[in-house]
Design a protein that fits this description.
166 residues, mainly alpha, Glutaredoxin, 5 helices, 9% strand
């Protein structure tokens, strides 16, 4: 009887330990990338507040991309954005990058409404650059896949403006 309960206890311990080991192994996996498909080589910040802090600290503009997973326009823009080498390179080297799937409490990030996709720039002085707009008068901060050259120009404009105004 004693032997059987010792054996049962040992088997239970072995089962628990191996489950624990598997759980620990799962934890060590690379964390889910914050890129969400917008560019895995880019360093992304997690929150708007962190983005503002990093922008101020590094003197780089913050680029905020508002999008939703189930939005076909967002998906199309994401693909064009991720495939554009110049955008990827500028985003990685010259910007603090944030992509959000929810609205922030900062009303300055939705000057003409809360729609997706929407890309806005924030200066290192923490000023939202509402003057850097896309091509569409009905949704000033939206971009379509064919607008990547326009987005590149706006990224360059965001970089130029900090050098001249600060």
């Amino acid at each position: 009887m004693m032997l059987r309960s010792t054996l049962a206890l040992s088997l239970l311990l072995i089962a628990v330990t191996s489950n624990l080991a598997m759980a620990i192994k799962k934890e060590k996996r690379a964390p889910q990338t914050l890129s969400r498909g917008w560019g895995d080589e880019i360093t992304w910040v997690q929150t708007y507040e962190e983005g503002l802090y990093q922008a101020k600290k590094s003197n780089k503009p913050l680029m905020v991309i508002h999008h939703l997973e189930d939005c076909q326009y967002c998906q199309a823009l994401k693909k064009a954005f991720a495939e554009n080498e110049e955008i990827q390179e500028m985003a990685q080297n010259n910007f603090i990058m944030l992509n959000l799937m929810h609205e922030t409490t900062d009303k300055n990030l939705s000057p003409d409404g809360q729609y997706v996709p929407r890309i806005m720039f924030v200066d290192p002085s923490l000023t939202v650059r509402a003057d850097i707009t896309g091509r569409y008068s009905n949704r000033l901060y939206t971009y379509e896949p064919q607008d990547m050259m326009f987005l590149i120009e706006n990224m360059k404009k965001a970089l130029r403006l900090i050098q001249t105004e600060l």
